[in-house]
Amino acid sequence: MLAALSGxxxxxxxxxxxxxxxxxxxxxxxxxxxxxxxxxxxxxxxVRMGARGAAWLFVGGGAVFAATLxxxxxxxxxxxxxxxxxxxxxxxxxxxWLAWHAARA
Length: 105
Description:
Number of domains: 1
Shape: elongated
Strand content: under 5%
Structural class: mainly alpha
Helix content: over 70%
């Protein structure tokens, strides 16, 4: 359910970035939406493979990564950009977990 909601949020953010935002804000929305959408799909795949930990890292990391960009795009302080890499680290962790799970299988 969370992966599906994450995908919906990603599409909405991307659409807002494409049609209503400008300059740097549009770019942040585009990047956040792309990463969030890719990792929502990856979470669904991870669940099907039985790698629930990877799925949680994909959904959680995608939410942190994208949310910080979305919040900056709507005008919140740019120091939030310092939090973005934490979400990215979780996404990398998800991919490593998924690789480890696949290697064990």
